[in-house]
Amino acid sequence: MMENAWIIPLFPLISFLLLLLLGKRLKESSAYIGIAFTLFSLIFSLLVLGDRFTSPTYKTGAEWLKIGDVRIRAGFEVNQLNALMLVIVSLVSFLVHMYSKGYMQGEKRFSVFYAYLGLFTFAMLGLVISPNLLQLYVFWELVGLGSFLLIGFYFYKEEAKQAAKKAFIMTRIGDVGLFIGMILLFWETGSFEYDAIFKAAHEGNLSEGMITLTAILIFIGAMGKSGQFPLHTWLPDAMEGPTPVSALIHAATMVAAGVYLVASMFPLFSESSTAMLIVAATGAFTAIFAASIGLVQTDIKRVLAYSTVSQLGYMMLALGTAGYVAGVFHLMTHAFFKALLFLAAGSVIHAVHTQNIEEMGGLWKKLRITGPLFLIGTLAISGVPLFSGFFSKDEILVSAWNHGNYFLFLLALIAAFFTAFYMFRLFFLVFAGVPKKEAGNVHESPASMTIPMLVLGVLAIVSGYVNTPWFGTFLGDWLTKGNTYLEHGHGDSPVWIMLAATIVSLAGIILAYLIYSKRTISRDWLGGQGSMLHNILFNKYYADEFYNLSIVRLTGILGVFFSYIDRFIVEGLVSLVTGTVQKLGKMGSRMQTGQVQQYGTIAFFGLAVLLILFALTGGIFE
Amino acid sequence: MNSVPLSAYLVLALILFCIGLYGALTKRNAVIVLISIELMLNAVNINLVAFSKLGTAPSISGQIFTLFTITVAAVEAAVGLAILMSLYNRRKTVNVDEMDQLKH
């Protein structure tokens, strides 16, 4: 089965091409094409994953380019991480395809939406089975394109247009880092293949500084895609896209590409403690930074977006503290519960037609299916025991603790408290209390939307049990088996960490309950609306304003400067050349008067001049 | 008998040629221009005859050449005058300045 893994990304590509050709005619039935092809992908991915349990890593490829002695190969690889990612991506993509059928009903460009989904899924699946950096980079850019198209799907809305542009440009900034890192690695090792790079790094063929430099450059690429500080600002804005897109791209797959990249380049990172520290510090800072912004946002999707940024920070922290298994584990559980949360949020928006949580309330009784599912997602992300997020978060905390970086551990713990608090603030504001609006026509979503949520709800609970300190670390053992560069962090996991995580998350939940449901604590006890703290958080630490004033303004000034150079110096030179030629031509044409006698005179004088020259120089008689 | 030197013939031919050239380049009337061209041709004829009698290697071929030239010049004058006639019929002018249609 594994030798046929290359076919998995091709299914969504076929769906994309078919919908491009036939979309106009198929209209809303194009959903079936998209769903069918992603289902094929999912089945194949599951088969591949099943195979991978018993057989070793499969890798194949053919020569792609040959320039002198340089050979560049293309192919695909199925290792543990790839196989797992294939299943996550195709599963979430399949569920989102299904969900969109209900959510996007009545949309004019319905088939275009499905075509874009297909393109994006193709790119993401292609990315995860790439065996070398160059191929990964190609799909990496395709993923960026897919997200650009999907975020800007409502391109007639100014915000969506801006958000799409912002997402594309911000991730491009990161991509430059990845590109430079990739070229540097190729320069040093002569290969794009992961194995060759890891081997060179492991055997000391690369200098210490070079490893650190390339690792950091690659991490900059991951920062762009995974919305790590300071390149995080595009992710919340990307919520302008349709909600299923937010679930697919900005929760489960695309933003996971950055984490996946760091995970698959992990052997390189682990050779440099500086790079690891930077990854961990960036992750921890992003986790707490985004979580604090999430505390005050009022748009349901934006709260989720900031929680995504924060959770991605968690994963980076895990990877940076040598918790390879923890990072990948959280990537998996997060994909499920965050997709669930986004889909449930979409269902809420579908029902009440607003995204402002201040205008919602009392939806628990109206949305009998969405409500409990949203609660499951919220419990999972808050790290309440027995839910999937609890196990993966615990693993991360343990890894941070065992690595000996207690400050980062503390940050992660506080971020966990924030997470529990803002997620339950969201939950109570949306589902508890009394309805704020005239909500007579609130109704539950159709089955095509609730079934994917049910599947994800189940996964959000059970997916944590593949790697627990109680029933065995099956996932961790499997992920690290046979990989010479990875060691399973089997360090002891103190029970008190698990207890601390539980207490912290329960404290967050209780605080949220007291403030937003019971209202025994005033909402403004730490600073109400209009206070400085609230303003800073509500305006996202003024990061956007800062970028606008510094980088955007500077670039604008530079752009104006260069446009003047272009207009006056470059264009001046060009028009000087054309002007001269034109003048010469005009002069020549003015000599052509059609007067025979003038021609004769000129010919005669020309001959005379020639003869005089001849006579003076001696001519041919000399 | 042979008292006139070669240079005298050559100077005569030079003067004749220059007059012809001046007329061909400056006169407005096309008939005068044609006549001036004839003058230039005849200046050449004088040179040919003079060299055939008094040149470094005298030979009869120069005089025969002259006969040819005179014939060709007559033909040329006939054709030129015919063109001029039809041009005059069309444009009602013999002014060379106005004959610049080939420019376009």
Automatic annotation (TrEMBL), chain A:
Gene Ontology cellular component terms for the protein in this record: plasma membrane
Location(s), subcellular: Cell membrane; Membrane
TM region positions: 6-23, 30-49, 81-100, 112-130, 136-156, 168-187, 207-224, 245-269, 275-296, 303-325, 331-352, 373-391, 406-432, 453-475, 495-516, 599-621
GO MF annotation, one: NADH dehydrogenase activity
Membrane topology summary: Multi-pass membrane protein
Main subcellular localisation: membrane
Domain NADH-Ubiquinone oxidoreductase (complex I) chain 5 N-terminal: 64-114
Database matches in InterPro entries: NADHpl_OxRdtase_5_subgr, ND/Mrp_TM, NU5C-like, Proton_antipo_N
Residue stretches making up the NADH:quinone oxidoreductase/Mrp antiporter transmembrane domain: 130-419
BP GO annotations: ATP synthesis coupled electron transport; electron transport coupled proton transport
Keyword field: Membrane, Transmembrane, Transmembrane helix
Family: Belongs to the CPA3 antiporters (TC 2.A.63) subunit A family.
Protein name: NADH-quinone oxidoreductase subunit L
Species of origin: Peribacillus deserti
Organism lineage string: Bacteria, Bacillati, Bacillota, Bacilli, Bacillales
UniProtKB/TrEMBL annotation, chain B:
Gene3D superfamilies for this protein: 1.10.287.3510
Superkingdom as given in the UniProt entry: Bacteria
The UniProt record lists the keyword Transmembrane: yes
Transmembrane parts of this sequence: 6-25, 32-52, 64-88
EC number: 7.1.1.-
Topological category with respect to the lipid bilayer: Multi-pass membrane protein
Predominant location category: membrane
Keywords noted in UniProt: Cell membrane, Membrane, NAD, Quinone, Translocase, Transmembrane, Transmembrane helix, Transport
UniProt GO BP: ATP synthesis coupled electron transport
Reactions catalysed, as given in the entry: a quinone + NADH + 5 H(+)(in) = a quinol + NAD(+) + 4 H(+)(out)
GO molecular function terms attached to this record: NADH dehydrogenase (quinone) (non-electrogenic) activity; quinone binding
Record's GO cellular component terms: NADH dehydrogenase complex; plasma membrane
Keyword Translocase: yes
Coiled coil: none
Compartmental location: Cell membrane; Membrane
Family per record: Belongs to the complex I subunit 4L family.
NCBIfam families, sorted: PRK05715.1-2, PRK05715.1-3, PRK05715.1-4, PRK05715.1-5
Subunit text: NDH-1 is composed of 14 different subunits. Subunits NuoA, H, J, K, L, M, N constitute the membrane sector of the complex.
Entry-linked HAMAP family: NDH1_NuoK
Function: NDH-1 shuttles electrons from NADH, via FMN and iron-sulfur (Fe-S) centers, to quinones in the respiratory chain. The immediate electron acceptor for the enzyme in this species is believed to be a menaquinone. Couples the redox reaction to proton translocation (for every two electrons transferred, four hydrogen ions are translocated across the cytoplasmic membrane), and thus conserves the redox energy in a proton gradient.
Protein name: NADH-quinone oxidoreductase subunit K
Originating species: Peribacillus deserti
